[in-house]
Structure formats: structure tokens, C-alpha cells
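Re: the pair you flagged

First of the two:
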Amino acid sequence: MTSRRVCLRSLGALGFAALIAGLPADAPAQSQSYPNRPIRFLIHTAPGSLVDVLGRIVAQELGERLGQTLVVDNRPGAATMIAAEQLIRSPADGYTLMINTSESTMLPFLKRSYKYDPVKDFTPIALAVTSWTVFAVNPKVQANTLQELVALSKTQGGGIRVGHGGTGGALHIAVEMLKLRSGGNFVHVPYRGGGPAAQDAIAGQIEGVSMGIASTRIAEGGKLRVIAQAGPRRHPILPNVPTTGEAGFTDVQMETWFGLVGPPNLPKEIADRIAGALAEVSRQPAYQERLFKLGMAVDYKTGPDLIAFINRNTAKWKELIPAMGIPQVD
């Protein structure tokens, strides 16, 4: 995936500073002339991750509409806080942006050290895409629906073991939410990544797995039985798999979302310029198709709708994470 609008190399702070050195800030007329130089685009995960792949697609497409290069700067680690700190310390001029995710509404209740409010400490610009979790089981498990799996779990002394990609992540939280909301006897089993969890479910080492929609290709050929998707509607990738709501568990939903944020106090004119460019991108069929292949769907929001969406997510996790008994860590 190459483009003259996106630099696909990860740059350190010094490298990026060198790239834009000598370019005038032009503060008074900044909003009118924006953008007139390259834009640093922070991604809080390592190259090759799902967030990184999505971020590079967005950077490429957005750069085409804005007429400037978006320079990808991967800053993984410290539960996204390294990238977040870089963003917060940047001038509010639109030349440093970050891809933010639904993690930002969960982390305040999972990690004591996480100190950022996703609305107050950043400038939310636009929601780009959403995806959601699915539940799948080994074909030998005697459950074809989520209702049957919940009922079966209550008859198992050791419960139904459900693997996921790591403690404290969205896939783990989805298991705990299912357990809390359904009253089922589910035991979460953490792995270092969703791939090993799915492979153990296929091998019968565990009964089920919580995974992202894009990972469901591993279930093809009957290797796993996907029984429910924890989203607001059926994803086009899984048109024949009912949602958790259809299965009778309307309050078991695990959406993951990805959006653009700027530093605090970003001028509205600049935020609107970026949001407008993303709106143009979101209408492109080719862009939508690229997201589809990643198990994602366009879900564009901006302005008050976006703020309300983020605040609802934060309030949800503030209530649910303690109720699920997931302890905070340092």
C-alpha cells in the first residue's frame, strides 16, 4: 500500500522535526491556510497491528483530500499513553493528529496510571469506523446458538472456557460482559494474541473464543462455529450470524471504534476541515471495501453526536468494568 500522500515509515520525534524544520507556523492565518505542510499522524500501536493498518489507510485517503502528506509516527507502549502524551504536548495547530480507539473509554477504569479523558484531554474530530466482537465455539460443543451456550455453561461444573487475546482488552471484557449479563458460567482464558486463542479453540483445548470479526476467516471450513456477534447489527462479513441482541442479550455489545483526535483546544475551523475531508473519504466505495476486508464498517460521526457517543461509552465502562470484577492494575 503506497501513496505519495502517506509516508509508511515510522518516524521518531527527531526525524519528524527534521522533516518539517524551517516551515513557518503562520499562526494568525493558520486556520485559513491549513494545511500547508506535512501532518504528523500518531498511531499508538506497533507497525502491522490492526490499528496501524487502519491508520495507514486513513492517512493515505485523508492526505489525498487535504493535499498534504500524513506522516505515520508509530508510538506504541504504556497502554497508548506514549502516543497520547506526544499529542497532548503538541501545538493545537492541526499538524499533529492521532488515531484514537474505544480503549480510551475503558483504560481509565482498567489502569490506575491512565490519566486521560477522551473528551477533555483531546479534541475529538471524527469517528471513522467501527467493528465488534464475535463468539465462536469448537464444533464439538453442543450449542448452535448463544442461548444454548449459556444454558450449557450452567450445567458444566468447570464452566465454558473462552479464550481471548489478553487480560483487560476488549475481547476479554466481552467475555466478562456475557458472563455478567447472561448469568452463564464462563471462564475467560487469556492468551498472547487472538490467534493462539482461536487455534486452541479449534484444537479443543478450550470450548470457545472471543475474537474480532476480521479473525473469523480462521473459522472457515467448519473449524469453528460462530454463534453470535456482539454488535448493533449483522456485519456484511457474517450475514447469517445473529447478533447478541437477536439472541436475547441486548445489553451484551462490544463495539470497537476508531476515530481522529487532535491536541486539546484545537481550533474548530481546523477540526471541521479535517472532519470534512474524512466525510469525503467515508463516501468512497473503494475505501469502504478496504474496511470491509478488515472486518470494519464506516460509522462517521462528528460534532455533538461524536461527543455524546464517546461520553456514553465512558459511562458504560465506568459502570460495567467494576461490576465485572476486573481489577485495576498499575
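Second of the two:
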Amino acid sequence: MTDRKGTADSLAGADGGSTGQGDADAGRTDGVTSDDESTAGVGTTAGGSDATDATSAEGSGDPAVELSDVRKTYHLGEPVHALDGVSLTIPSGSYTAVMGPSGSGKSTLMNLVGCLDTPSEGRVEVGGEDVSGLSENGKATLRGEKVGFVFQTFNLMPRLTAAENVALPMVFRDRSREERSDRAGDLLAQVGLGDRLDHQPSELSGGQRQRVAIARALANDPEIILADEPTGNLDTDTGSEILELFQRLHDADNTVLMVTHERHVAEHAARIVHLLDGEIDEIETVESPRRVAGRDAESGDGNEGESQDEGERGDEGERGEEGEAVAVDGGTGDRGANNDPNEADGRAR
């Protein structure tokens, strides 16, 4: 498994980790600027399936995920080719965004990488293991060990506390109760919820629920973090805070694969993979990824605080407070009813 310097410590930020909302690493080099008025510089790789062989120089070591000539066909009266000959390498430690219109294959790609489905043809390797030949139990084990999920709709268990939600994936790794409790508390502290351990999802705001979901995704130190529209249900300010967390995760050498419809969100990644009609249309290299401007942290209160994401700010309140969380297992153990490939992430293919 990739050494990621200790994920919990990496989220502490400059404030020593009391809330996980310390200043972003504004001094990062490699052409990245922390100026909140900056825009992302983008380069383009030629479109088509051959473009998928272009791999960002970012990341090191063995690939976290590798797709080789992958096809996924659904038989819905007539064949529907959700993915058609896709080859793509996700290097360890990279930050990749996936964009495309509805029906382009984004959901199918995420389901395959997340071991929620198998390809009709081709190979999908996650952490060096070929998903195609695994049984359902084998895929569930691989999901629990090597994949962390962050969904648009949070997908927290509504009757469990924040700490219990974060600890749940570790149950399937046979960790002791004490170890689960300690790690859940540490992770929640690092995402700014150290004083919300015993709160249920209905007692948390939308941004706080997404932080719990991020902490849960990190519970088993996965090979790759899959984020499906992680800011889609959040207002602009809260979305910026969530993007800052992903920024720090990536800075700590975690591998992040994010699906989004928003261009400014995608430009936080180092690469943008554009899907169209089940094929890769082009791969962009973001020469100067957007950075969330640093801000002062509240000391241990777990509040959302204020943030800026490239000068884009919103006035609306958090929409996440209006609804209940959805109960699924988050893809961490045996597949539950809501982990159907077309339902687990709350999106139609």
C-alpha cells in the first residue's frame, strides 16, 4: 500500500490540527499559486482513446488505478455502450478530475474503479489487482481495503453518530473497538469536527456531513479516494472548505479521482479527463491548479468558518441542513441495497 506520510497528521494544517482548518500550503511550488484571484493554466492532450495513455508527470510509483481497453455494455432492449475502449492510468499520488455531459460514462467509470461493477471487456486494476476476475466478496474486500468513497449525498448512516460512521469501515478490517474509536476521533478532529463525535447526521450541517464522509473515506488508508460531486449539495463557501480538504489530502500524496460538472472545481486537479459518448474526448493538463486561499481556523469549535475559492463566494446558506442523510454502507463492506452500481452514488448512469 502506498505510503502517504500519515493521512491524519497531514490534515492538521498549520494550526497543529486542532480543527483541521489551518492555512493551506500557500508555498507549494511546481507552478501552483495560492493567489485567490489566479486562474488555472490548462494544456490539452489529443482526444480519443489513444489520449488516455498520456499520464501526468504528477504522482509516483505504481499506478493506483489502470484501465486497459475497457468496455461496458448494458443490454436495455438494445446494447448501450456506456464505455467504449477506454484506457486510462491514474498514478499514485495524483489528483484527477472527470468531466462530461450526462450519459458520457462518468458514473460507469466510477463504478468500475470503485469495484462496484466489472467491465464487459478489458481490464480494470485497482492497487495492482484485476477487478474483472474477483467474486462479489472479493470486490467487497477490495473496496473496503483500497477504495474510499465520498458521495454528493454524503450517504451516512442516519442513526449512527459521526464517530460511529467513520469507524464503520474498520469493522470489516477486524480492528479492535478501541482502535476504531481512536482513529475515528483522530480523523474527525483533523477535518474540524473534534467536538462533534457524538452528533448524528441530522444534527450536522451539510458541510459537516461531508467532512464526516471524507473522514470515513480515509478510515482504512485507501489506495484511492473517489469523490462523486463532493461539493454538489453545498453552497459556495462550504464547497470551498471541502475542496481545501481534498487539496490537503493530495498534498499528502493521497490519490484523488473526482467527478464534477463544474469547471472551476475540476481545475483544482492536475488533470481533467473529458468523457463523451463513452470515450475519452481529451485529457487536459492543468498547469496551475486552483488553490483555496488559506484562512484562520476557529480553535476546536468545528464550525464551518469562512473560505475563499479563487474569489468565488456565495451568499446562500447550507442546503445540507434541510434533509436527512441517506443510509448506505458507503461501499466499505458487503454490498448493501443502496450500493447498486446505478444507485450507490445517487446518480443515473
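The first strand starts at residue 42 and ends at 45.

-B.
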